[in-house]
Design a protein that fits this description.
By secondary structure, chain A is of the alpha/beta class. Chain A has one domain: Aconitase, domain 4 (Alpha-Beta Barrel), CATH 3.20.19. Chain A is 32% helix and 17% strand. Chain A has eight helices and eight strands, in the order ββααβαβαβαβββααα. Chain A has a four-stranded antiparallel beta sheet, covered by helices on one side. Chain A has a four-stranded parallel beta sheet with strand order 2-3-4-5. In chain A, helix 4 links the parallel strand 4 and strand 5. The longest helix of chain A has 11 residues. Chain A is globular, with a radius of gyration of 18 Å. The two termini of chain A are 34 Å apart. The mean pLDDT of chain A is 92. Chain B is α/β, with parallel strands linked by helices. Chain B has three domains: 156 residues, Aconitase, domain 3; 95 residues, Aconitase, Domain 2 (3-Layer(aba) Sandwich); 162 residues, Aconitase, domain 3, CATH 3.30.499.10. In chain B, strands 5-4-3-6-7 form a five-stranded parallel beta sheet, with helices on both faces. A five-stranded parallel beta sheet of chain B has the order 17-16-15-18-19, with helices on one face. In chain B, strands 11-10-9-12 form a four-stranded parallel beta sheet. Classes of the chains: A alpha/beta, B alpha/beta. The structure holds iron/sulfur cluster (SF4). The site of iron/sulfur cluster (SF4) has 13 residues of chain B, from helix 13.
């Protein structure tokens, strides 16, 4: 099974706020674990649950019609704050394979890509149009396009990252491309 | 023309891509906090740990320091992290120095102590103070959890090569000045980010004069200067230190090894991208008054005026004011330990001061050796008796009050004279007020009941 992303079609969950930081994506009391999965309940916890811990019915992640959607549309500077990779893991566990935002914190951006998920950068007007249209969105990584109905936008992503995501190469596989060289090194210096 | 850093780097470079190099890792040290998700990643992807023989584990961050508490760790999270390390090491065949091992200790203590961290190696650990091991003449750096997993699976890591910063330290220090004072002074003068983007090599007559343990204290705090790497050229002292240690090359191998590392030095000062200098001839003992390590003065310097909102916040948090001096700090707690200053050399300095003395009434002093070996050695030399007679509490090894992740916490509002490396808000427990200093000054403070430097 390839874990690469070529094309994904899904309706979007919309949380159209700027500066969604990693404490909102996953607060620190959810980090007390030795696992890297099982964070789906933690995603957006501060906004998702009331002070008694009950789900807030009209928060997007809690709405029945939003379950199973793979795309999240957000504001600017998504994922700012601490470097915790748990933020990427929480999105992944909830099933969000693509975030469409205006910009990202560099550390979150890398963490998300390192987990083979796609951060798309689109301008505000484009995102507003997508939200307005409220149609299934198709993100085509090979063509670098986001389309919905008769809207179609292109986005930019570094060639390296695109390649990695399309092929579904994880960091380890990217190193193991050089397995022969590593073995040769070990034979000589690190027996 | 190459630096010491360049030479070790180049030897470990497997391949380059764009601006990053794939480096081979000679030694991977792990502890219970940053490794569980990496092990889980291996399991989820059905991968093996490539070189269990180059991977060593210890328990340190969560371990209780009161001996009876080590049998049955009461905090459930701590217990889970410790147990999962044990299970992971068993499953993947990694050597673990658990709490009952005579080689247990803080990860940055046991590497050099066991002869694992030796000149010429590349060393990684999921911990920001890994630069400590660079004092042996190695490239050592902290990595994140995903990178721990990468190294588990491939024994390699992608890195962008940093620039070379030479820190030249000259002059002869007075008897009450130590490596800790040198690094605090460098940070006070140049700020908490002067090493960002650089590998720091410390050199010069004052560095050569330091013993190996002091060099470890110095490189330990490279990260407080913003640098991921800190290192020192190996010399005869380094070789004498590692000879005969259990994991160091032995016999003929050691002879050969000495030859192999003969070229480990910086060819010329021109090889550095930048040099900064410090003359320690007039250096006085340093002490931090604020909430980052650059907020540091000597006893005769009043605390500086407020210039930024960070300053305001720091004074407020510390309950201090500009114009006061360190002697006026109402200190109640003294912590001697951590991977900066929990070595036998540190305890000897403390014992010399505490011999036939009793700590002041207002002081609680806790001594936490950095490792089991240090504890054993301190017992054998009679240091532990001196500490106990002076009224100190003697504990078992671990990170302990350095980051208060186990049960050892400084109470809110309490000023602590500490030999550790970070004085951030809440670092030693919620509301705790940390003052970084050398073990010498910490011991003097314990005896006098206030901060003194002689
Ligand atoms: S002693 Fe402190 S700085 Fe050193 S490894 Fe432990 S927590 Fe980190």
């Amino acid at each position: 099974m390839s874990r690469g992303i070529k094309q994904i079609t899904s309706e979007a969950i919309v949380i159209f706020k700027d500066n969604i930081d990693t404490d909102i994506l996953i607060p620190k009391n959810y980090l007390k674990t030795t696992k890297r999965t099982g964070f789906e309940k933690a995603l957006f916890a501060p906004w998702r649950y009331d002070s008694q811990g009950k789900p807030i019915a009209d928060f997007p992640l809690n709405m029945p019609e939003n379950q199973g959607k793979k795309i999240l549309i957000a504001g600017e500077n998504f994922g700012c704050g601490s470097s915790r990779e748990h933020a990427a893991w929480a999105l992944q566990d909830f099933g969000i394979d693509i975030v469409i935002a205006g910009s990202y914190s560099p550390i979150f951006y890398m963490n998300y890509i390192n987990n083979l998920k796609l951060p798309v950068v689109l301008g505000r007007t484009e995102r507003e149009a997508l939200i307005e249209a409220d149609l299934p969105i198709t993100v085509d990584l090979e063509a670098k396009t986001v389309s919905a109905g008769n809207l179609e936008y292109t986005f930019e992503i570094e060639r390296d990252y695109r390649n990695k995501l399309i092929k579904g190469l994880d960091n380890i596989e990217e190193i193991l491309i050089y397995e022969d060289l590593i073995e040769a090194y070990e034979a000589e210096y690190a027996k | 023309m190459k630096t010491l850093f360049d030479k070790i780097w180049d030897k470990h470079k497997i391949v380059s891509e764009d601006d990053k190099d794939l480096l081979y890792v000679d030694l991977h040290l792990i502890h219970e906090v940053t490794s569980p998700q990496a092990f889980e990643g291996l399991r989820l992807n059905n991968r093996k740990l490539r070189r269990p023989d180059l991977t060593f584990a210890t328990m340190d961050h969560n371990t209780p320091t009161i001996p009876e508490h080590r049998e049955n760790v009461s905090d459930p999270l701590s217990r889970e992290q410790l147990c999962s390390l044990e299970e992971n090491c068993r499953e993947f065949g990694v050597k673990l120095f658990d709490m009952s091992s005579e080689n247990n200790g803080i990860v940055h203590m046991i590497g050099p102590e066991l002869g694992l961290s030796i000149p010429g190696k590349t060393i990684v650990c999921g911990d920001s103070h890994t630069a400590t091991h660079g004092a042996m003449g190695a490239i050592a750096f902290g990595i994140g959890t995903s990178e721990v997993e990468n190294v588990f699976a491939t024994q390699c890591i992608w890195q962008t090569k940093p620039k070379n910063l030479g820190v030249k330290v000259t002059g002869k220090s007075s008897a009450n000045v130590f490596a800790k004072d040198i690094i605090l002074k460098l940070i006070a003068d140049n700020g908490v980010a002067f090493g960002t983007g650089y590998a720091i090599e410390f050199f010069g007559e004052a560095i050569e004069a330091l013993n190996v343990e002091e060099r470890l204290s110095l490189c330990n705090m490279s990260i407080e200067a913003g640098a991921k790497f800190g290192l020192i050229k190996p010399d005869q002292k380094t070789l004498d230190y590692i000879e005969g240690r259990p994991y160091a090359p032995q016999g003929d191998d050691f002879e050969q090894y000495k030859k192999d590392i003969e070229d480990l030095f910086t060819d010329s000062e021109q090889a550095y991208d930048k040099i900064i200098t410090l003359d320690i001839s007039d250096l006085k003992p340093q002490i931090s008054y604020g909430t980052n390590p650059a907020m540091t003065v000597s006893l005769d310097q009043p605390f500086p005026q407020i210039e930024t909102t960070e300053d305001t916040r720091a004074y407020q948090y510390m309950g201090l004011e500009p114009g006061m001096t360190a002697a006026q700090i109402p200190v109640e707690f003294v912590f001697i330990g951590s991977c900066t200053n929990g070595r036998i050399n540190d305890l000897r300095i403390v014992a010399e001061i505490m011999q036939d003395q009793v700590i002041a009434d207002n002081i609680t002093c806790v001594i936490v050796p950095g490792s089991m070996q240090v504890l054993k050695q301190a017992e054998a030399e009679g240091l532990v008796d001196i500490f106990k007679e002076a009224g100190c509490e003697m504990r078992y090894p671990g990170c302990s009050y350095c980051l208060a992740m186990n049960e050892d916490r400084v109470e809110p509002g309490v000023h602590c004279a500490s030999t550790s490396n970070r004085n951030f808000e809440g670092r030693q427990g919620e509301g705790s007020r940390t003052h970084l200093m050398s073990p010498y000054m910490a011991a003097k403070t314990a005896i006098n009941g206030r901060i003194v430097d002689e």
